[in-house]
UniProtKB/TrEMBL annotation:
Listed Basic and acidic residues bias regions: 30-47
Descriptive protein name: Magnesium-dependent phosphatase-1
Residue segments, region Disordered: 1-50
The species this protein was found in: Pseudogymnoascus destructans (strain ATCC MYA-4855 / 20631-21)
GO molecular function per UniProt: acid phosphatase activity
Length: 135
């Protein structure tokens, strides 16, 4: 089970000043990268797939948004899905939610948001903890 929380990302100001006080563009590089990753996840990216891109959300059979304690949230997820804690991988930008690791969940902290590299590193850690690294 992969659990990715929903969180609002504050939008950057419409213009950023360059070193010479000129306008540097309509959004920051970081914001453009996040938007590109979001579009890719939603299947909006076009290219080699010839318009056949799948939405990332289609890969997941269970979605929940749960305020409050993540330990309670994951206990509920285990009850409703039957997936054991050790099978779960959780990406979050809030370090305090690492408490789920006390249950056996692998949590990968993504303070700057989730991108492909962070996703791969998180999956790698989950595999390492389960003893399936390199298989």
């Amino acid at each position: 089970m992969l659990q990715i929380p929903w969180f609002d990302v504050p939008a950057p100001p419409p213009l950023e000043a360059g070193d010479d006080a000129s306008s540097a563009g309509s959004t920051s590089k970081k914001a453009r990268e996040k938007e590109k990753a979001r579009e890719k996840a939603l299947g909006k990216e076009r290219g080699a797939g010839g318009g056949k891109a799948r939405k990332a959300i289609e890969f997941f059979g269970h979605m929940e948004i749960y305020p409050g304690s993540k330990k309670k949230h994951f206990a509920r997820l285990r009850e409703t899905t039957g997936v054991e804690f050790g099978e779960m991988l959780f990406f979050d930008d809030e370090k305090r939610n690492r408490e789920v690791e006390e249950l056996g969940v692998t949590m990968w902290w993504v303070p700057d948001g989730l991108d492909g590299g962070e996703f791969e590193r998180g999956v790698g850690e989950w595999r390492r903890r389960r003893g399936v690294e390199g298989k």
